[in-house]
């Protein structure tokens, strides 16, 4: 059994080709729990549909970021199973834990997380350059910057950009890895309302254009209603 699951996971990762566009992914969590000092996520069962934006809404401290990190593999659940499509990527009982780098996903954070000493081009290339030739990498970065309407900004440093532009760079960096899934953790919360609206539309359009699956964490229900195909309400570590 363990062998079967490992083999299928290996098959999943072999199957992935950076040159191909996305493979359909639906995420399924079964009986997932995570505790720190106390329980944060409790026996959570959830299915995230493929090629849609699912908003994850809930008050501060309700476990939204923890849930994203569990899906990303940055945090290990105490128990339960996580599936991407038919492939188990985490199973506590089988000691199966597919590493984050093999999960074909990208994350976008509220604080952009750009390297200040690198240009926009270097920031994006950093995520992909080990997998690609120099020429392919340059092409991919240019492609990603064009996707977010920043084609001429490659040589700038993050400090030379507005907050909205920096978040576009973070989005381009995510797209450049050609993920199946993008996880947004309060990604627009630091931006002013006008920019937020614009970026909500842009994210929506990009997710649809590239047939991505997205989970969009926000504490703002209006934003969730605007951007999402589905809304999941999290309260005290459970779906309500
Ligand atoms: P949200 O993103 O909904 O605001 P979080 O998932 O960040 O909520 O946090 C949920 C709870 O888990 C909080 O009480 C937080 O203090 C706790 N928590 C999150 N990460 C850790 C950690 N690495 N160590 C200890 N406690 C944590
Ligand atoms: Mg959070």
Task: Explain briefly what this protein structure is.
34% of the residues lie in helices and 25% in strands. With 240 residues, the protein is an alpha/beta fold.
Explain what you see.
This protein is an alpha/beta fold and 240 residues long. The chain has a domain at 2-104 and 179-239: Rossmann fold, CATH 3.40.50. Helices cover 34% and strands 25% of the residues. The protein is built from seven helices and eleven strands. The chain has helices at residues 2-15, 64-72, 120-126, 134-147, 163-176, 193-209, 221-227, and strands at 27-35, 39-48, 53-57, 79-84, 87-91, 96-97, 105-109, 181-185, 213-218, 230-235, 238-239. The protein has a six-stranded mixed beta sheet with strand order 7-8-9-3-10-11, with helices on both faces. The protein has a five-stranded antiparallel beta sheet with strand order 2-1-4-5-6. Helix 4 (134-147) packs across helix 5. The radius of gyration is 18 Å and the shape is globular. It starts with a helix and ends with a strand. The model is unreliable at 1-23 (pLDDT under 50). Adenosine-5'-diphosphate binds at residues 36, 40, 58, 60-66.
